[in-house]
Amino acid sequence: MHPLKIWLLASRPKTLAAGLTPVLIGTAMAAAADAFHGASAVAAALGALLIQIGTNFANDYFDFVKGTDTEERIGPKRATQAGLVSPKTMLVATILVFGLSFLPGAYLIYRGGWPFLAIGIVSVICGVLYTGGPWPLGYLGLGDLFVLIFFGPVAVAGTYYVQALTLTPNVLIAGLIPGLFSTAILTVNNLRDADTDVRTGKKTLAVRLGKTFARWEYVVCLVVPGIVLPLYLCVQTGGHWFSLAALATMALAIPLIKNVFCSEDGTVLNDTLAGTGKLLLLFSIVFSIGWLW
Description:
- The chain has 293 residues and is mostly helical.
- It has helices at residues 3-11, 17-32, 38-65, 87-100, 102-112, 115-129, 143-150, 153-164, 169-200, 205-208, 211-237, 253-262, 266-292.
- It has one domain: Farnesyl Diphosphate Synthase, CATH 1.10.600.
């Protein structure tokens, strides 16, 4: 396999929408408030993308060294587990990508102040501790909360603030939209891996509370951001009604929910995970365009 293809595989491109969509929504809301700042938007997007890739690399490394990723896994191929990248090289790549994230981060600190340094450091630490360290978040069932917060309100509010230099409660609420969709992506991942995670001691919510809980968690994490929150925001602001066009994209959620409830096949759930990422991206694009009208 070509080296570039290997590293693209390790970056998990089907999940990267989770890092970019909060920036898209935050930027659209800033633009609607006549506060768009292009350089800040680009820096926020680069920073979010690099931190997510760094987290994916760390996950690839730590799941392998902890023995979680074995030949029994039914998810997409992992570069370290498959022998495509040595553990040492993956660790170096993780450190390098996290280090690079501080380049756009430096501009965000210059623009928005020292709180962005704290956000960047905490994001990187949590990215490592998601699967690394003695008490990894993902192994304790705290991964869902991490994803909800950092791929939701933190990312959207940070993107908005670094452009508008102010913040409103509605921006934080809007942040729950990509946060919950991203949690749905993680839920499918955990549902797919529940049986192997039990044997390796990885206690995700799907393991702790069962597969039925995970299936209903998935539904909630689609319905609330896909229908409830957009309606609330439009009623609350008394405008931005065109953003409700995004509700039409939720028709794509019907087969995804059906897959989650009716199948435990790894290939089907892998496709469902990818489909959820596409739904997140499409919904966010339509919502953001509509919010600007």
